[in-house]
Recover the amino acids of this structure.
């Protein structure tokens, strides 16, 4: 598309026709400088627009990466929280089972105060199964009066063997 310019006389003509129209060299130079300046401005605007678009694309890419990172961190945090909840639940179940087993073991033996009295007046101070020393804290006394350590009694209880190792009577 040919550029139209205004001649010194005021008429609008094609830039290529300036010489034919009789414009002065000064005016032709002015028009040429003006055209070059507009071309440079247009090139600069195009460069600025490309730079702006590039920055916008880069900003969107960074935002997308940040969102993905937040999702990834959020997902990992959720997984860890689930793992922690599961471990707590398993620990609570383990503690309940341990407490229930201990209560069952203690219910099958004689009451603690009777065991303490018997421990003071007996010569039997070792476990009849593992031969470890018995203390008031780790002793279990069967209803038939025989003693063993709580560890051995617990093992017998886990194996569903509810008989006294000394006299074979039921607990």
């Amino acid at each position: 598309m040919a550029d139209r310019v205004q001649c010194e006389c005021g008429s609008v003509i094609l830039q290529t026709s300036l010489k034919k129209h009789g414009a002065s060299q000064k005016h032709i130079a002015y028009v040429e400088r003006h055209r070059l300046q507009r071309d440079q401005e247009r090139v600069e605007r195009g460069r600025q627009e490309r730079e702006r678009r590039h920055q916008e694309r880069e900003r969107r890419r960074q935002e997308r990466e940040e969102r993905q990172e937040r999702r990834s961190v959020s997902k990992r945090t959720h997984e860890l929280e689930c793992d922690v909840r599961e471990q707590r639940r398993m620990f609570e179940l383990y503690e309940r089972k341990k407490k229930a087993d201990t209560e069952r073991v203690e219910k099958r033996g004689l009451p603690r105060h009777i065991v303490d009295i018997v421990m003071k007046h007996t010569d039997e101070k070792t476990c009849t199964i593992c031969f470890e020393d018995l203390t008031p804290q780790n002793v279990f006394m069967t209803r038939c009066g025989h003693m063993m350590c709580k560890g051995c009694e617990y093992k017998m209880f886990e194996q569903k063997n509810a008989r006294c190792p000394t006299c074979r009577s039921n607990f």
